[in-house]
Each structure stands twice: as C-alpha cells, then as structure tokens.
C-alpha cells in the first residue's frame, strides 16, 4: 500500500493497474483537452524521464542553476511507488530553478515531496524555505513518510520564473522530488465577482488574480475521490464525509448524466471535472419532519488567524442542480463561518434554462483563531415547504499567501442580490470520434452549443464575464450581439410574415408565430416596418431581456435590426395568455383551483425575480392576465417586460415616468402621483389574483357601476366576509376554505391604497405557496368549520379603493373590457387578438 498526496489517499497496486488502459489512450491526440501553453513537468535530481498519471516529467538539469546541489536516488523505494518519487534534488545552499515562460498570467505550481533516506540525508528532517519570484510561499514544511503535494495558483508576470530553495540554519538543507509549472485555463481566477464574506456584510474582494493561492482542501462533495488521472487539470479531489459536522444531515445525490455546460455562462469542465458536478450532498429529510429546516455544515481546518486578524482564504463553491425535478424550485442560502454568503441562491436563474448546469461562486473568508472555515447550506425563505432543499457539489479552499489589505474595497451599499461568479467556457466538439476519445480522458460529453466562435479552449463570453453582477451592471452591446438573427431567417420562420400566423397585435406592431431553422417555436414581434419610433424601447428591451433567464419569465431568443426592421424573437409559449383560460374562451377547459394557484405562484416567482434578482430591480409596469402566459405544462411565464424600467436608485424611492399600464390594473397611487415603485406591480398582481379567483375581467363596462371594477367589487365582498359568493362558478366546491381565505387576504393586501402598505412580491409568493399548502391539506369549504386556518391572520381593515372608476373613463375599452393607457409606440403592451 502506497500513500498518495497529503490527504492520505491510498494508491494501491490495483489503481496502478487500472491506469494501463488509459495510458494507451493517452497517445491518441485529443485536441480539445486542455493543453497548457507553458507546461514544465520536472523530475528533479534524476537522470531519466518518469511519468505519473500519464504525464511525462523530464530531467531537471537544464532548469537548474547551482553547483551546491546533489542528485539522490532512493535505493529502497516502497513497492508500487511511482518512479518519479525515487529521486530528489537536495540543496545545501540557496539554489533556483528557472523557467522561461511563453505566457504571462495565472499558472499552476506544484511541488512534490517524498522524503527518503540517502547518503546521510534524512529528508524528513529537511529545513528550508521556498520563494517564487522573491515571495516566500513555503517554510517549515511538515514532512512525514508520505508524498506531500503542495499546490499554488499564481500570476506569473515575468518571462523568467524563478523558484528558489533556501536552506534554513547551518545544518539545514532543502529538497524536492518533482515540480509542475503550467499555464492555467484562461480566466481561471478572475478579478471581479468575488465576495468577501464577513461581519461587515457585502464587500467585494478585488485583485484576486494578483494573490498567490495555496490549495488547502479540494472536495468532491457527495462523491468519490477523483485522482489527477480523471481531472482536467490533474488535481486530486477527496470526498467530503469526514468534514461533515452532522453526517445525518446530508444525503448524497448522484447524477448519471454529464452536466449541461452552458454557452458562455456557468462553469467549464476545467473549473472542475464532470464528476464533481455529477455528485452532491443534499438535505437528508428522511429522519426529519418534511418541512423542518436545517443546514448541512462542513468544518474545514485551515491556517488559524492569530492575534485577532484572520487569514483570508478563497472559498470556491461548485453547484449543479442535480436534485430538482424542475427549474426554479430550489432556493437556498449559503453561509461561510456563520455569515450569510449567498442568500436565496436560485441556480436555475443564473444558468440558461436547464437543470444540472454547473456554476461556481468565489468567496473570500477569513479563518478564525481556531483555524476552521465552516461552510453551511440550508433552505431559503423562498423555498416552499414541500421542496425545502439545499445542495453543494464541490468546495475548494485556498489560502491567500500574499495578503494585502488594499485589495479589499468596502462597499456600504447593500445590494439586493448577491453576486455569483458564473464562469463561462465553451469548448467546441467538432468530430464525433474525438468527442468519444475525449469522453474517456476529458469527461467532456455532449454540450448544447449554439455559437462556437473558437475552437479549443477560448471561452466565449456571451454574457460578458463571469459574474452576474457584472453582467447586469454593464449593460451594453457586448451582451447581446450573439442574439442577432438574420432577417432572411425570420422571413422563412414566419412564412414571410404570413397573416395566418398572426397571434397578436399591439401598439408596436404584429406578433407572429414562427418556427426557426432548428425547429424552435418562437413568437416574432415585428415593429411597424419603417417606423423607428420605438427604437430606444427596442434597445431597452433587448438589453433587459438578453440578461434575463428565468423559468417564469418569457425569454428572448433573438432580435433583428436589418433593413430598418425592429424585430424581437421570443420563446413561444404554447397555451398563450392566462386570460384566455379564465374567461371568454368557451373552447378552453377551465383551470382547476390547484392549477390556478400554481400559475399565480409561478408568475409571482417571475415577478419576484424581476424585482429582486438584479442590483437595480426591474419593475414590470404592465402586469395583467394577458401578460402572463402559460406553457404546455401549465407553467406560468410573465411576458412583455420590455418597457420595464429599472427600479429606484439609491437615494430615490420611486421612478418618475409617464404613466403606462392597463386600465383596471393600474396602481391608484402611481396613477395619481406618477411615481413608479415595485409596489405598482404588486397592485396589478392583486387584480390578477382576483381575476383568477372570480373568472371575470379586471374591468367589465357591461356590468352595473358597482361591479365594473373588479378590484373594488372583490374587496367589497371580501370585507363582507362573503368572498365565496363571487368565486368563478367553475371552482365551486373545489376550494378549501382556508386556502380561499389566505388567497383572498393576499390579493386584498396587494390592493392596499398606498404602496407602503402592500406586501413585497416575496411576501405574496410566500402567502400563495401557503394557500396551496392549505388547499392540499385543509378542509373543503362546504364542510363548514369556524377555525379554518391555524395561522394568526392579520386581516387588514377593508380598503375600498378611493379612486372611482369614473376618474378613468377617458380611457377607451377594448372589446375585452381591457383598456390600454398610453398606447402609441408602446410595444410591450401586446393585446392578443383572441376576439378575432
Ligand atoms: C477514472 O474515472 C473512471 C470513471 O469514473 C473510473 O472508473 C476510474 O477508476 C477512474 N480512474 C482513476 C485513476 O481514478
Ligand atoms: C444555518 O446556519 C446559519 C449560520 O450558522 C444560521 O444563521 C441559520 O440560523 C441556520 N439555519 C438553520 C435552519 O438552522
């Protein structure tokens, strides 16, 4: 039995034998594996090359510059130990290795130490320092009789890289068995998007790439050990079990599918190999009450901080949602050293519409005096009781060696959304044969790529960088040029704008159903040809939409600006507007109460994301039942937030803007004061909730004056305690009393006269989830009980809307009883032509 690297992993003879088939593979060229530009693998003190994990380490003589060194060979090497470790170079005086570098930038540096005894040198008593380019990186090594591999990640900025070994004291000497210096993949360490986690809340950690990082732990959470042989950068990953504080809190999850690497977003196979993303720990809820909340916690020993100041460590966490059945149901919080590091992490919304899509997040945290870094994950407030979960797929902890306080920039402003480093990488696969070979060696499997601009390694940054923060705070052309669709493609998709394919029309122009070349169904929104009126809105819409990916928001597929056309191409949402499913279309089957609740929950999630998912929230401004679309699986998708304005800036509480929105849904406060806040959306959403409950339009001019305005009418009945009297007849007998009560209350709170009194979308979401739970567990309305809900209900006093509908009669009605305010060039206000 032979012990391999510092983590005490055992490398048995079987392992060595297992390598043999792979060694053959190694000789087949695989152009898509990562090939470092600088790649020095050195067998120190030896007269022959040696290989380890398929990599050939060459003689050190040409890199070495000192006479006072000795080459030693182990005469009694342990059985099965790699030949590489049978020799060492020993230094009795300071001496350096020098490497001429082809490329400046981030490099990996590894030292292999395997002490043995030869010619009177007992290597495990060696005393020496190691400096790289003049900076001390190793001293006072704890040597045992095992292999010790020390890894550093550092930026090399000179053409000649020097590693100096300096014996300590009179009798001191240094030694080394093998060295690796190789170029890291591009953007392996980025200077932006790294969060400093600690007592001061949000701070950004700057200039990470100028730090020398020493790898302390590299963990394949929920999985097995990964050896350098199976890692894209020849790293070793070890299982997490020994670090779990409560083993019972976690349950391993394994996926059999290769991760869905994303084009320009998320992690790459070089950031961590597939196997890291294909396993995870999740909450073990077997021994607990279903809805109980707890964290999964790991403790990692690191260098203790002495004298009050901790030692900063880079904590790189890897995530890949291999546990959720659908998108946007997993919401969890991440803590480091008990400080919140990432709140309400929703992996679906930072990846592009697929599950099992790998991402990683970089944090910097200080170790405490006890020398522990603690990582916890636990369900967030946004998770529904049935779906509480939290995951972690991988963790790397690296000590920052050259600490420099100027790197920390304090940011007092609280950002609503935490920042994630989403590193994008694209690796093109061009031939099936090489892809197959790759799969064996690189573990890179099929990847859905829409655009591949470069072969091999260079990552394509469709979204302009690695962090969501950066993505959203730097609007600009960089983000969306990849979404351009040639006019000819749009012509063929819509059969040259065939009138029979029109599915809607609005102030902006017509909307056509179309099918792109790759068989993707789309909705094509074409501005009036020749009219450039809405150009600023057009660009706003592209800028906003190109950044937004969420299960409950309609996503932009592309756009076209050729021939003075303004065309936006959206994903096609099969069942169309919610409104059609509520009333006015006898042909469509009525939705059940559960379906309606789920649709409202989905739409609320989408809106909540718009409001909070960005540094500066986005206000929709035109929430109505025609702008909530339903897909085949009855999943709600909020549409038409193209004219959405960003939320208020730091010092303002509202955005002043021309009133836009739809009659019947319009926030009275916004209407009167022309002040837009996210609470205006909450108001409109309240109207939608009553529409869903009552199955009637927000405004129906054919009804009596008291009934015209749904919001007023419904609140009146609710205050009389007789909400069940105005429930959609299709729902009679379906709704449980407690669920109805919760739902009515929630809708009513949304309709509060003043924005400050209205709940946030997050509260609305929570309450709707709760109404759904009550529906699943509560009692039917018909079986009348008085104590219907077990929750302390704080029903606000009935609010009857102050502004009467007569204030708004200058607006016109469309034939659905819906009126558009400020139409003209407003292309976000798509009116469906369901009445045609
Ligand atoms: C590499 O991975 C494969 C598949 O996961 C596994 O069977 C094999 O044992 C691994 N090899 C090494 C040397 O870790
Ligand atoms: C999870 O851990 C954090 C940090 O230690 C703590 O604040 C939070 O209360 C924990 N959550 C639960 C449900 O225990």
TrEMBL record:
Q: Which InterPro entries does the entry link to?
A: ANXUR1/2-like, Kinase-like_dom_sf, Malectin-like_Carb-bd_dom, Prot_kinase_dom, Protein_kinase_ATP_BS, Ser-Thr/Tyr_kinase_cat_dom, Ser/Thr_kinase_AS
Q: Which Pfam families match?
A: Malectin_like, PK_Tyr_Ser-Thr
Coiled-coil ranges per the record? none
How does it sit in the bilayer? Single-pass type I membrane protein
Residues that bind ATP, according to the entry? 525
Which stretches are transmembrane? 12-32, 415-440
Q: In which compartments does the protein localize?
A: Membrane
Superkingdom of this protein's organism: Eukaryota
Database matches in SUPFAM superfamilies: Protein kinase-like (PK-like) (SSF56112)
Q: Name one GO molecular function term.
A: protein serine/threonine kinase activity
Question: Mind telling me which GO cellular component terms the entry cites?
Answer: plasma membrane; plasmodesma
Instruction: Kindly state which keywords UniProt assigns to this record, in alphabetical order.
Output: ATP-binding, Glycoprotein, Kinase, Membrane, Nucleotide-binding, Serine/threonine-protein kinase, Signal, Transferase, Transmembrane, Transmembrane helix
Which part of the chain is the Protein kinase domain? 497-771
Q: Which SMART domains match?
A: S_TKc
Q: What is this protein called?
A: Protein kinase domain-containing protein
Q: Which organism is it from?
A: Lupinus albus (White lupine)
Lineage from the top down?
Eukaryota, Viridiplantae, Streptophyta, Embryophyta, Tracheophyta
């Amino acid at each position: 039995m032979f012990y391999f690297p510092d983590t005490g992993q055992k490398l048995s003879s079987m392992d060595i034998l297992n390598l043999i088939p792979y060694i053959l593979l190694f000789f087949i060229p695989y152009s898509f594996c990562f090939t470092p530009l600088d790649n020095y693998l050195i067998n120190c003190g030896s007269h022959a090359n040696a290989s380890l994990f398929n990599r050939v380490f060459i003689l050190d003589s040409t890199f070495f510059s000192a006479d006072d060194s000795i080459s030693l060979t182990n005469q009694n090497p342990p059985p099965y130990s790699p030949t590489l470790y049978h020799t060492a170079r020993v230094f009795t005086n300071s001496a350096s290795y020098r490497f001429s570098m082809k490329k400046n930038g981030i490099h990996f540096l590894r030292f292999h130490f395997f002490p043995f005894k030869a010619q009177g040198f007992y290597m495990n008593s060696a005393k020496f320092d190691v400096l790289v380019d003049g900076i001390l990186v190793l001293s006072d090594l704890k040597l045992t009789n095992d292999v010790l591999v020390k890894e550093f990640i550092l930026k090399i900025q000179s053409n000649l890289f020097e590693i100096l070994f300096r014996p300590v004291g009179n009798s001191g000497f240094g030694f080394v068995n093998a060295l690796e210096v190789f170029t890291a993949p591009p953007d392996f360490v980025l200077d932006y998007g790294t969060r400093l986690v600690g007592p001061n809340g949000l701070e950004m950690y700057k200039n990470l790439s100028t730090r020398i990082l020493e790898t302390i732990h590299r963990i394949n959470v929920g999985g097995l050990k990964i050896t350098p042989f199976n890692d894209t950068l020849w790293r070793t990953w070890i299982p997490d079990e020994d670090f779990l504080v409560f083993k019972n809190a976690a349950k391993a999850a394994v996926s059999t599918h290769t991760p869905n690497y994303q084009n320009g977003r998320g992690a790459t196979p070089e950031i961590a190999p597939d196997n890291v993303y294909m396993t995870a720990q999740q909450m073990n809820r077997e021994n607990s009450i279903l809805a109980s909340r707890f964290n999964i916690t790991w403790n990692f020993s690191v260098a203790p901080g002495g004298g009050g100041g901790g030692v900063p460590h880079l904590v790189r966490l890897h995530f890949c949602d291999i546990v959720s059945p659908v998108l946007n149901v997993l919401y969890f919080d991440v803590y480091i050293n008990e400080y919140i590091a990432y709140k309400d992490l929703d992996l679906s919304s930072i990846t592009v519409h697929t599950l099992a899509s790998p991402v990683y997040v970089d944090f910097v945290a200080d170790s405490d005096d006890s020398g522990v870094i603690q990582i916890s994950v636990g369900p967030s407030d946004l998770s529904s009781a049935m779906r509480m979960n939290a995951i972690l797929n991988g963790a790397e902890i690296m000590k920052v060696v050259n600490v420099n306080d100027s790197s920390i920039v304090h940011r007092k402003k609280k950002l609503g959304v935490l920042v994630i480093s989403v590193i994008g990488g694209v690796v093109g696969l061009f031939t099936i044969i090489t892809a197959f070979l790759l799969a064996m060696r690189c573990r890179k499997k099929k990847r859905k790529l829409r655009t591949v601009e470069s072969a091999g390694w260079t990552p394509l940054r469709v979204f302009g960088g690695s962090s969501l923060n950066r993505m959203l705070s730097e609007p600009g052309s960089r983000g969306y040029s990849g979404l351009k669709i040639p006019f000819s493609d749009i012509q063929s998709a819509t059969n040259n704008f065939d009138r029979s394919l029109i599915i809607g029309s609005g102030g902006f122009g017509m909307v056509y159903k179309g099918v792109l070349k790759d068989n993707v169904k789309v909705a094509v929104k074409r501005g009036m040809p020749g009219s450039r009126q809405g150009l600023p809105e057009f660009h706003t819409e592209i800028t906003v939409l190109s950044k937004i990916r969420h299960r409950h928001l309609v996503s932009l597929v592309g756009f076209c600006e050729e021939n003075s056309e303004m065309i936006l191409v959206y994903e096609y949402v099969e069942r169309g507007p919610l409104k059609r499913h509520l009333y006015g279309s006898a042909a469509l089957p009525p939705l059940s109460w559960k379906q309606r609740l789920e649709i409202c929950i989905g739409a609320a999630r989408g809106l909540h994301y718009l409001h909070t998912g960005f540094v500066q929230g986005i206000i929709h401004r035109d929430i109505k039942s025609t702008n909530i679309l339903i897909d085949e699986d009855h999943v709600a998708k909020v549409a038409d937030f193209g004219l959405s304005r960003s939320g208020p800036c730091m010092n303002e509480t509202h955005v002043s803007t021309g009133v836009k929105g739809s009659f019947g849904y319009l926030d009275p406060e916004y209407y009167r004061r022309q002040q837009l806040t996210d609470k205006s959306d909450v108001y409109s959403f309240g109207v939608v909730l009553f529409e869903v409950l009552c199955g009637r339009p927000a405004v129906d001019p054919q009804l009596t004056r008291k009934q015209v305005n749904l919001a007023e009418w419904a609140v009146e009945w609710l205050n009389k305690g007789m909400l069940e009297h105005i429930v959609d007849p299709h729902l009679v007998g379906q709704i449980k009393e407690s669920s109805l009560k919760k739902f009515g209350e929630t809708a009513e709170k949304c309709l509060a006269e003043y924005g400050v009194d209205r709940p946030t979308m997050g509260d609305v979401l929570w309450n709707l989830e709760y109404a759904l739970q009550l529906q699943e567990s509560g009692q039917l309305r018909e079986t009348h009980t008085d104590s219907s809900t077990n929750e302390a209900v704080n029903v606000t006093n009935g609010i009857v809307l102050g502004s009467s509908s007569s204030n708004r009669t200058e607006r016109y009605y469309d034939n659905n009883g819906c009126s558009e305010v400020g139409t003209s060039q407003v292309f976000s206000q798509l009116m469906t032509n369901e009445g045609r």
